[in-house]
């Protein structure tokens, strides 16, 4: 009986920390670069929560809807071609992996350690978060090749010239807590 009371107390305490994230107001913008320029767009949150203690992030989980990926720097035929390619197995393979996930594992001050899962592969990432009212903003960078996205990478293919795509992808975010 004592164990059950302790377990319920922990559950209630944990739930008090869990804060829902406003998925419609939160914003995630990606940036990919290549030798001849860059492309950028957005990705929508499917669901998310933050674990807060006195307004400070202690944990959280973010599920991204990879089918929602957009391209905001092009229009017309090239826009459609890029989106089709980003959703293909060369990049995010959204038919097989419709979600990506970020799980916060540790927070020290404004430094966040997290596990990023894309295409079924999980790798650690580190980034900083700045809090303003109920908004948590920052920028995380990841090496796409660690998630089996090697298309156009100079680390895997030679003589790409101006077709080479840089490995680092930047995701700027603003998360709004409800």
Description:
There is one protein chain. By secondary structure, the chain is α+β, with helices and mostly antiparallel strands. The chain is built from two helices and nine strands. An eight-stranded antiparallel β-barrel has the order 2-3-4-5-6-7-8-9. The chain is globular.
Summarize the entry for a quick read.
The chain has 178 residues and is of the alpha+beta class. Helix content is 16%, strand content 50%. The model is unreliable at 2-16 (pLDDT under 50).
Give me some keywords for this one:
178 residues; alpha+beta; eight-stranded antiparallel barrel; 2 helices; 9 strands; 50% strand; globular; disordered N terminus
Strand ordering within the main sheet: 2-3-4-5-6-7-8-9
Strand content: over 45%
Oligomer: single chain
User: Strand tally, please?
Assistant: 9
Name the structural class: alpha+beta
Q: Largest sheet, if any?
A: 8 strands, antiparallel, barrel
State Rg.
18 Å
Per DSSP, the total helix count is 2
How much is the average pLDDT?
Answer: 91
Give the overall shape, derived from the CA principal axes: globular
Report the span from N to C terminus: 35 Å
